[in-house]
Amino acid sequence: MHFAKALLPEGWRSQVSITLADGLIKTVEPDAQLPIGAEHYGVAIPGMPNLHSHAFQRAMAGLAEYRSSDGDDFWSWRDLMYRLAGTIDPDQLRKVAAMAQIEMLESGFTRVGEFHYLHHDVSGGRFGNLAEMSNAIFAAAWQTGIAVTHLPVFYAHGGFNGAPPTEAQARFVCDLDEFSHLLERCREGAADLPDAVVGLAPHSLRAVTPQELSALEELAGDGPIHIHIAEQVREVADCRAALGTTPVRWLLDNARVGSRWCLVHATHVDVGEVSDMAGSGAVVGLCPVTEANLGDGIFPAQAFMEAGGRFGIGSDSNVRIDMAEELRVLEYGQRLHLQARNIMTSKKFMSNGRSLLECALHGGWHALGLDGGIRPGASADLVALREDVLVCGAQRDDALIDHLIFSAGSRAIDSVWRRGRLVVSGGRHVMRDQVEGEYRAVLKALIA
Question: Which range among 145-149, 366-370, 386-390 shows the weakest confidence by mean pLDDT?
Answer without folding.
Answer: 386-390
